[in-house]
Amino acid sequence: MVSKFSIKIWALYFFIVVLDFIFFKFSAFSLDINSIIQLHGKIFVQVVLLFASFLIYNKNARKSLKVIEPIFIGLLFITPITVLTYFSIDFNFPLVDNYLSHIDSDVGFRWHTYIKYVDSSYFISKLLWLCYISFSYQLLLIPIILGFANQHERSYQFIFCFGLVSVIASLISVFTPAYGTYTTYALDVNTLRNIDTSFVFGFIEPFDAVRGSGSYTLSAEEFVGILTFPSVHAGVAGLCMWVFWGQRKLFLPFLVLNIGMACSAISHANHYFIDVIAGLAVAALSIFMSSYFFRDKQKIAEKRPLPLVVNPI
Predict the structure, then answer these.
(1) Which has the least CB within 10 A, 3, 31, 176, 193?
(2) Model confidence over 230-246: pLDDT tens digits?
(3) Is 58 buried (19+), middle (13-18) or exposed (0-12) by CB count in 10 A?
(4) Crossing angle between the packed helical segments 232-242 and 122-148, to the nearest 10 degrees
(5) Can you tell me the distance from the alpha carbon of 203 to that of 229, in angstroms, rounded to the nearest whole number?
(6) Distances (CA, A) of 138 to 4, 25, 74, 170, 259
(7) Distance between CA atoms of residues 99 and 145, nearest Å
(8) pTM given for the model
């Protein structure tokens, strides 16, 4: 079944692919095609297994496909979106860390004070860490929840917004490359007691390699988040807060979880406070733009509660 909603989301997917081809003309690095093919093979196998499990739960293949398709496209988004983020950094514009840190200071945000507070509590540090790593899990779980609740249009719109957030953030980042807070403020992570910094420096090596003058080959096995301003983590957090707006049973827990995810981008990644604000603004813009494309089905956004126990597909 090909609906007008799936056509829109596939159109966005191919738009991102076209952007990649355009940027590739100006890029100095190459792609490891074999690793990308292998990644897509794994995605296909995972989706087939997921579809088969849905068929065991419900024999209606047509409705199962309506649940699976947004998830499938969302997984396919991984490659062109990640490649686009690397292309945006490859333009090699001047670093803007000084500007971002000054903005934080001007609005009264004290990064060192915030880090000291989070690090002083094992519970807060661990909680924010869990919020941070919920990023990919939420992108998979939310379409499943919406699909089983028969809110398929909302599911398509959510993935559509994810694609928009990623594209807009990548285009902005062409002009705003940055190392981020931990590098700029030269904080010795060995002095931290509780904050897990696993994601803090992982992007620095590919970031420097892409911006360097030498050759660089991007492999799917090495995909990492490479953008600082705006924060894609914060942008997705904004989408996950919005998607259950008006749903009494789910809105509050997802609101709390994603406030935590937005805050964790500062403590557990390499983001400035202004990165988070910008990411949330990009999410709001993406929701507004998507509402135009999906406006003929805005009944999906009405305050109609999800069932306490979701119905079979």
Answers:
(1) 193
(2) 999 999 999 999 998 88
(3) middle
(4) 50
(5) 14
(6) 25, 34, 12, 21, 13
(7) 41
(8) 0.85
